[in-house]
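[Archive record]
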Amino acid sequence: MKPDVIKTWVDNKFVHILTADGIEHREAIADYERLRNASPEQLQNFETDNVGIHWPDLDEDLCYEGFLQEETLSDKTEFYRMFKNFPEINVAALARRLGIKQSLMAAYICGSKKPSEARRKEIINELHTLGKALQEVG
């Protein structure tokens, strides 16, 4: 279920959204490494679209649907778990390497869209290519 978000804001502890039904939802900044380590200016520099929130300076995304779900890490998508475990991987740069929009990659990560099996394999193969390239450094 995609929420109808009418307002988004960030304070020093939470990222907030207000939905059209008048309910405020929030996610703790402390739960996200890139947000937790960001400056106040970086936290305030965000963009929104119909899928969620993007911090271009931080390469961090939060999907609106995640604000409404009470899930454990094991309930998240394989891509969510992978990027959570490896926050040093730049999602936007990986999307560019794949020739897809960053917002589509974010939708795959949060689970609002499911990649086809061919796209899933393409993403995994690109991650393996990146890993092999890193192994050759030095």
